[in-house]
Amino acid sequence: MIWILALTTVVMFIPIAISLVVMPFLTRETVSFGISVSEEMYHSPQLRRMRKQYAWISGILYTLLLTACLFTLLQTDEGGQSYALSSYILMMVIGSAAINLAFYLRMKKVKASFPPNTIKSGKIAVDTRFRSHKITISNRWFALHTAIALTSAALALAYYDEFPATLAMKFGSHGEITHSAAKSLQAVLAPNLTQLALIALFMFLNRMIHKSKQQINPDHPELSARQNAVFRLRWSMFNAVACMMIVLLLSFIQLNMRFQLQSGIVMLVSLLFPSLIIIMAFVLSLTTGQGGRLINRTSPGGGTTAVNDDRYWKLGFVYYNPNDPALFVEKRMGIGWTVNFARPTAWMVTAGILIAVLAAIFFGK
Fold it and tell me: No. of H helices and E strands in the chain?
């Protein structure tokens, strides 16, 4: 069943690689490689060439890494396959960080070379009615996720005696059991504890999407506000759907503990669900863009206004602004949200997310 692992690797990582390659084309027209610019600068020939260069360099790198990973997966044993996947992910992270840093530093020099009349600052737009619109789904939707987790736990407890004495916990690429555990309440209920930890995390992320600071283009405030509202709503809905798929996957894993289903089916389902989540995120990224830029897209604008808050964005992705009361803000690089690390609460939030992730991993063992 090595072909399942190889195929899933392609299905999961090609969308991720493509998203990284085209990210400069998805960002707001007021941001270029982590640096604030005007729309006029964004559409300049020099910045167009930079985006194409970025795409070629990163595309070649990710293609070579994926090719090497697939070759290793098909040629090595179980231990080599785990090493190949972990090495591939690590090299992708390092390569992406290096490319982004290089283009960020280059963009700082390019911006300084533009004439002052191509960019204006100090103009900020705020929509006072923004949060009166439906920008996220309610956290009440997660009651359904919680009900599934609690029902799975109740059934596991009711049929606890029917679980085998040894529980299959992990399968290899050929369908063989590579890790098992003795039956215990902790082992049987581990998927449910993981479900609850992840549901809490996804509920927090949904709240984060709702509470994050407005980012409205002052040259097109009404259009920008509508785009951002739809952008948040779509990602909020994706957040709930992705959480549901993970909850169902964990219930399926618990079901397999009881009935010991065919290993090929278990492996296929275990790889299929994460692949579908990644594909959905990929499609959503390509259709919405950063901050909803691609929603109801119009012709390229010629705005000359930029926020010019680059001093608060360390290396283009870490936001540290003591003068900003906002805790959550949209990312400058990529699509998503981050925190204002100048706020003490931000460090507590980061620690809380880390604890939730570690708890999910711990209970999932």
Answer: 9, 8
Q: CA nearest 153: which of 254, 253, 242?
A: 254
- Run of H or E including 166: strand 166-171
Measured torsion, CA atoms of residues 19, 22, 28, 33, in degrees rounded to the nearest 10: 100
Q: Is 302 helix (H, G, I), strand (E, B) or coil?
A: coil
Q: What is the dihedral sign for C-alpha 40, 22, 292, 32? A: negative
| CA 362 to each of CA 14, 195, 253: distance values in angstroms, whole numbers, following the listed order | 29, 12, 16
Distance CA 216, CA 198 (A): 31
Tens digit of each residue's pLDDT (9 = 90 or more) over 308-345: 788 899 988 899 999 888 888 888 888 888 889 998 88
Q: Which tens digits make up the pLDDT trace of 4-15?
A: 667 777 888 899
Alpha-carbon span 54 to 333, nearest angstrom: 14
